[in-house]
Amino acid sequence: MKSYKRFLPEVGMLLPAIILMVVFIFIPFFLSGYFSFTNERLMPRPIPTQWIGLRNYERILADSEFWMSVKNTLYFAIVVIPIQLSLSLASAILLNSKLKFIAVFRGITILPILTPITVIVVIWAAIFQTPDGLLNGIYQWLTGTYDYIDWLGDETIAMLSIVILSIWASFPFQMLIYLAGLQEIPKDRYEAAEIDGFNKWQQFRYITFPGLRNTNIFVVIITTIGALSLFTQVNILTGGGPNGSTTTIIQYMFSNGFSSQKIGYASAVSVIFFITVASLGLLQRRLMRNE
Amino acid sequence: MSNLKLSGISKSFDGIKTIHDVDLDIKDGEFVVFVGPSGCGKSTLLRLIAGLEKVTEGEINIGGRVVNDLEPSKRGISMVFQSYALYPHMTVRQNMSVGLKVAGLKKSEIERKVNEAAKILQLDDLMERKPAQLSGGQRQRVAIGRSIVRNPDVFLFDEPLSNLDAELRVKMRLEITALHEQLKSTMIYVTHDQVEAMTMADKIVVLKEGRVVQVGSPLELYNNPVNQFVGGFIGSPRMNFIAASFHKQEGKNITLKTKTGENVDFALDTDTTLKNDPLSIGIRPEHIALGNKYSVKIRLKIKAIELLGGTSYVHGSQANGEDLIIEIKSENMLERHKEYDFSFCPSRCHVFDHLGNVIKLARN
């Protein structure tokens, strides 16, 4: 009795957070696990929900549209991750230097972080507009013709357009983390290198890059997870089209769950997605630790 | 030859002058210690020599070359940092050899130099470890090893021992001194610890607020401080200062009066006439004795006693509130809050004028 009373203040302080986490994270998490084995619908209907075992999973794995979305997502991740990492590291190094007006540059670069992704997507929709958007204007000026590129309507280009927009929208976040990582590296290590006669490239190779090891692990993992859960850009700009060329796993899950109202089926997709992302994250961690 | 000569060195940061017109001559093979309280500019001066900061005015000459516009790596110097600044992902061997590698030395040459340095510093068994697997003292030795392989004209040390515990510090102090004896190179060592300065230096440079206050051997500084600052800074525990006023002067013989009414006689070394400004008598804790043995008497109420073993430091205050520290043999059992008689001899004293500058006394 006494020990129970002793923890009362702690429990009281933890309670609000615990309630929120239980209601909004744990319950939905386990519920979607449960739904994935049923034929639960979004809207109530006369036939009761039934336990259907692994049938959702069987159907998903047999659906060519699902595999198309997996392929698209992986393509997106493989293109985006290296470009975004190098871009954010390079700009972090620039912003870490002692240039004049550096604060102004830093401010400008983090603007995309402050803008909601939906707003960014709408702005880019205007930039991508066919035939008279900004990008096509530049294209026509460069080529001196009235040709244009159908940025979002062309099956072979649509995903690339989403890649460009996504890199622009999210590299500043990674850059900020790199910037923090760079500032963690003690200055006298560079001074020792100066006395040892390192040039700029050698300083990067022997000090900066090794010094960013932990930052790299973190940034790679969050970038991977972010890339795999690509959704908003696709949903607003192309809705997965044209011809399924930009469907991603989350887009696939969304259209099945909300447009087709198959919540059980969508839950199964989300479970598959969760397991994939979690194992990728673990694998990455393992690989980088052994390095 | 690796003489080092600083002429008229000044340094300003954003228009604020932190080093004022420093002239200094350091001879080949000398062990020089820059010492002073924090913020006195000693580290800045070292970084100017290293080339990590650019001088605003003046000329730095190392081994007969003006190095003002040379990169740090081309100046013939090496530096050991307070934080060691080792490359954490490299082994000890790599840490010591990477500088030579980027300088383009041959592999066999690098190996020979690194092994030689490892032997001098007894690092042979640690060569394949990384800095994180080493103790503070070992890391410091690696940092020194990285310096040695460069075979510099001048070694620079920036407070290298301040991250070590007291016992290790004493040990490393001896090691660095021994190393200097072995290598016979010029070494410049920065510290705020006057004990390190006294025990290691051939020559001490005392700095205050970006200016050189006094240059000399440890004993010179201890025996003949040019002003009250050096007197108080060199020696531990610090010199006592007793406020006094001018009483009378007959030729070179002067008499001062302390606030407690005691007359103290001194003989001047020069023909100066003292004015009626307030003066200060400096006397070191080890030069005041218990009892009435000497001519100048003081009576102290004991406030605290620090027992160090063979000796003790007694903190006491005079009737007028002036506090003094006295070093006594520990077998003299004094009690706190009681009053005792002490005395000292004027020949052991230093006299400073109202600006803190020493008034030269005749010593016999």
Automatic annotation (TrEMBL), chain A:
<feature type="domain" description="ABC transmembrane type-1">
    <location>
        <begin position="70"/>
        <end position="284"/>
    </location>
</feature>
<feature type="transmembrane region" description="Helical">
    <location>
        <begin position="12"/>
        <end position="35"/>
    </location>
</feature>
<keyword id="KW-0812">Transmembrane</keyword>
<protein>
    <submittedName>
        <fullName>Multiple sugar transport system permease protein</fullName>
    </submittedName>
</protein>
<feature type="transmembrane region" description="Helical">
    <location>
        <begin position="215"/>
        <end position="236"/>
    </location>
</feature>
<feature type="transmembrane region" description="Helical">
    <location>
        <begin position="157"/>
        <end position="180"/>
    </location>
</feature>
<keyword id="KW-0813">Transport</keyword>
<keyword id="KW-0472">Membrane</keyword>
<dbReference type="InterPro" id="IPR000515">
    <property type="entry name" value="MetI-like"/>
</dbReference>
<feature type="transmembrane region" description="Helical">
    <location>
        <begin position="107"/>
        <end position="127"/>
    </location>
</feature>
<dbReference type="GO" id="GO:0005886">
    <property type="term" value="C:plasma membrane"/>
</dbReference>
<comment type="similarity">
    <text>Belongs to the binding-protein-dependent transport system permease family.</text>
</comment>
<dbReference type="Pfam" id="PF00528">
    <property type="entry name" value="BPD_transp_1"/>
</dbReference>
<keyword id="KW-0762">Sugar transport</keyword>
<feature type="transmembrane region" description="Helical">
    <location>
        <begin position="74"/>
        <end position="95"/>
    </location>
</feature>
<dbReference type="GO" id="GO:0055085">
    <property type="term" value="P:transmembrane transport"/>
</dbReference>
<keyword id="KW-1133">Transmembrane helix</keyword>
<feature type="transmembrane region" description="Helical">
    <location>
        <begin position="263"/>
        <end position="283"/>
    </location>
</feature>
<dbReference type="InterPro" id="IPR035906">
    <property type="entry name" value="MetI-like_sf"/>
</dbReference>
<dbReference type="InterPro" id="IPR051393">
    <property type="entry name" value="ABC_transporter_permease"/>
</dbReference>
<keyword id="KW-1003">Cell membrane</keyword>
UniProtKB/TrEMBL annotation, chain B:
<dbReference type="InterPro" id="IPR008995">
    <property type="entry name" value="Mo/tungstate-bd_C_term_dom"/>
</dbReference>
<dbReference type="InterPro" id="IPR003593">
    <property type="entry name" value="AAA+_ATPase"/>
</dbReference>
<dbReference type="InterPro" id="IPR015855">
    <property type="entry name" value="ABC_transpr_MalK-like"/>
</dbReference>
<keyword id="KW-0813">Transport</keyword>
<dbReference type="Pfam" id="PF17912">
    <property type="entry name" value="OB_MalK"/>
</dbReference>
<dbReference type="GO" id="GO:0005524">
    <property type="term" value="F:ATP binding"/>
</dbReference>
<dbReference type="InterPro" id="IPR017871">
    <property type="entry name" value="ABC_transporter-like_CS"/>
</dbReference>
<dbReference type="InterPro" id="IPR040582">
    <property type="entry name" value="OB_MalK-like"/>
</dbReference>
<dbReference type="InterPro" id="IPR003439">
    <property type="entry name" value="ABC_transporter-like_ATP-bd"/>
</dbReference>
<dbReference type="GO" id="GO:0015423">
    <property type="term" value="F:ABC-type maltose transporter activity"/>
</dbReference>
<dbReference type="GO" id="GO:0055052">
    <property type="term" value="C:ATP-binding cassette (ABC) transporter complex, substrate-binding subunit-containing"/>
</dbReference>
<dbReference type="GO" id="GO:0016887">
    <property type="term" value="F:ATP hydrolysis activity"/>
</dbReference>
<keyword id="KW-0067">ATP-binding</keyword>
<keyword id="KW-0997">Cell inner membrane</keyword>
<keyword id="KW-0547">Nucleotide-binding</keyword>
<feature type="domain" description="ABC transporter">
    <location>
        <begin position="4"/>
        <end position="234"/>
    </location>
</feature>
<dbReference type="InterPro" id="IPR012340">
    <property type="entry name" value="NA-bd_OB-fold"/>
</dbReference>
<dbReference type="InterPro" id="IPR047641">
    <property type="entry name" value="ABC_transpr_MalK/UgpC-like"/>
</dbReference>
<protein>
    <submittedName>
        <fullName>Carbohydrate ABC transporter ATP-binding protein, CUT1 family (TC 3.A.1.1.-)</fullName>
    </submittedName>
</protein>
<keyword id="KW-0472">Membrane</keyword>
<keyword id="KW-0762">Sugar transport</keyword>
<keyword id="KW-1003">Cell membrane</keyword>
